[in-house]
Amino acid sequence: MKVSFYDIKAQYDELHDEIDSAVLQVMASGVYTISGGKECPTFEQEIADLHGVKHGIAVNSGTDALRILLDAAGIGPGDEVITPSFTFVASVETILQTGAHAVFADINLETFCLDPASIEAAITPRTKAILPVHLFGQLADVEAITKIAKDRSLLILEDAAQAIGCTHDGIATGNYGIGAALSFYVTKNLGAAGDGGMIITNNDEIALSCRSLRVHGMGRERYYYDQLGFTSRLDEVQAAYLRVKLSRLDEWNRRRGRHANHYLQALSGIGLQLPKISAGNNHTWHQFSIRSPQRDELRSFLASKGIDTMIYYPVPIHHHSPYLNCLIGPTGLSNSDQGSREILNLPVHPHLSDDKVQFVTESIAEFQKKAVSPAGARG
Ligand SMILES: *Cc1c(COP(=O)(O)O)cnc(C)c1O
Predict the structure, then answer these.
(1) Rg (CA), the chain
(2) Fewer CB within 10 A of the terminal residue: the chain, N end or C end?
(3) What is the pTM of this model?
(4) Do residues 64 and 71 lie in contact, with contact meaning Cβ atoms separated by under 8 Å?
(5) Cβ of residue 189 lying under 6 Å from some atom of ligand 1
């Protein structure tokens, strides 16, 4: 049996009539970009409503959403921004691009998100902001992080690229700081036919600034510029495509949740670390991540059975050459390193059949039986 890690084509196949019609309507309208288009502003409103925030500003990618949000928040040279090293590179890359310093704090190994004690320890007089990453489909410890930010007068910028629709006590990402960055990259829970992203915020000034930054820093008047900006629009075709998929996001997340529950039950008590859902959080299962000290052997075993897995992320950011000079907080990054050595992401996408999920759990159980039996049993 072949079990693929993603199945993007199956998403299209499920919706092809609606997608074709929405996309062709844009093509026929002759209006392809934000100015004059109606798909993009409607999509922005729908995503803002989904998160209970005032503004959505659609841009070209999640990375651009972070980059533009950092600029709008006034982060720049001399500032320190605390962020995890156990993340996708864009969280850190965009901080450095502003001229600010990234300061790495460690993660909690049960949630893979920032450990509040490690954040606290990393604060210096130059700290301007915390940039938590809501990894794998649930929010970081937003209660502790908002408390730290309030006590120490720091900004919070949320990397919500993997956390569309994620909530804590019913309050969604986008409401915990100055703004959040969403990604619509193909493989995300809501994926475009290519790249896309959005900043969501309740802050009128930030929203205005982001709207200006995405078109070269243009002010209210056309061809008058207030700041250095970017070219980062979301195309009308992408917005139309994404709006169709948005109508299925709940249903697709429910299917992910069903697979995740199956994994949580079938894989408990066999010597693996299972992912933890923090109290008050919903989990949208962008990834289902287990940990095993025998991760590489387990991964090869599953591959031999036709089961695709992934490693997010194999090497934390602080080990890559452009990031060797980033600062590391006093608690060190041992959990980030351990997470990278032990993590294995299992297929959890909405178009997996229950049979396949069962096959994955049986195959893992088969491996574990050999792996945890007395020494020498594996050869
Ligand atoms: C995907 C992702 C990004 C960047 O989004 P793109 O749309 O690919 O530019 C940023 N941060 C995290 C945690 C991501 O997973």
Answers:
(1) 21
(2) C
(3) 0.97
(4) no
(5) no
